Amino acid sequence: MSDLTPPKRRVRVQASDRDPMTMRFLLDSDVQPGSSASFTAAEAESAPLASALFAIDGVEQVQVGGASIHVRRGAGAEWTDLKPRIAEAIRRVLDTCDHPLGTAQPPRDDDARLLDQVQDLLDRQANPAIAAHGGSVSVDRVEKARVHLRFAGGCQGCAASSQTLREGIETMLRAALPEIAEIIDVTDHDAGVNPYYTSNDAPSPKLTRPVPASVVDHSEGELRIDPEFLARRLGLTPETLSAGLANGDIERHVETRTGQSGPITRVSVFAPTRSWAADLHDNGRIFEVPPPRREARTEARTATLTDRVRAHLNSLDTDARPITYSALARALGLYLPGSVRKVTQALEATMREDAAADRPFVAAGVVNRHSGLPGKGFFDLAQALGRAIPEDQEALATYRQRLTTRP
């Protein structure tokens, strides 16, 4: 007989980096769609969820917004005791009550309203783009118009997240919601001082994060960054960093400008998915700063990779074909994230060249590891170029025999 007991409701817990008295309890769906509120013990009577939480000794304040429940504890309470009791109370109320915040519109305050508005903007305008990089940003809480944001996924620990916040999210939020007093990043990025952005014009401590002098060497006139430190900032291993610098997949720029207190040397490092930059001041102090925008790669560089791909494939013996996309990337010294995509783009360029020259597609010699066939994009492009090829192993093997005659 099957077990028809519904699965236990998931309640995730997130501690606050800045306020040990506050804990966030996060659900998989909104507590009560379209409703949010802040409660004190005196205001909890009409809301079943608030009543259940305030019945727990030590709970001092409750704020509900979307799928988040922020609970503030009293000075004498401990989270080790409170967390399981709060989670159980949340499950009990949500499993038995259709309106955990009450049937009437629950009492709302400016912070609760602002939390809803900020999260809505993030979900509609920011997160779809950030998700393309494997990250997300959400509202942790709002207190006295101070918006606390939390980065997750690929954005957590990313050296470019400060640039993302400054150039995108902050601009968007302040334009839509001028009542915001302060925007604070509460993500644990493994270093740095919060907040990112304050309401005054002083430079943010996070944006000018000190870099330990021991990781930078400029004693011989050339600026060198400790590879282990830099690799961590770029999300790489030191070996991958070294290989990327050697083959040009990672770019390093150094420039000097005149600052108020003397010359400032900026070193910027651009990997395919992350960037990092630091300013070296004339007094020897070094600060990590948001990296500048990366200039687009030139057509010449793309053409160079296309030539390298063609040369390598033409050099392969018959028994070395086909070769997988990842093996081809490694053979060209490309190990970083995104390398297979670059190789695929270069292969598409060879197909256009081969079609124009009425040659067989050299790209037919590259396949997926699992299927043993080229990617779907190969067949689609071949058809678009008027030279359709059957998606069949035997037909491809016959086609590859035409590649034995090399230019």
From TrEMBL:
What organism does the record attribute this protein to?
Roseovarius tolerans
Residues covered by the Scaffold protein Nfu/NifU N-terminal domain: 20-97
Top-rank taxon of the source lineage equals Bacteria
Among the Pfam families in the record, one is Nfu_N
State any single GO MF term: iron-sulfur cluster binding
Checking SMART domains in the record gives: Nfu_N
Q: Which InterPro entries match?
A: FSCA_dom_sf (IPR034904), Nfu/NifU_N (IPR014824), Nfu/NifU_N_sf (IPR036498), NIF_FeS_clus_asmbl_NifU_C (IPR001075)
Which GO biological process annotations does it have?
A: iron-sulfur cluster assembly
Protein name listed in UniProt? Fe/S biogenesis protein NfuA
Q: Which PANTHER family match?
A: FE_S BIOGENESIS PROTEIN NFUA, IRON-SULFUR CLUSTER SCAFFOLD PROTEIN NFU-RELATED
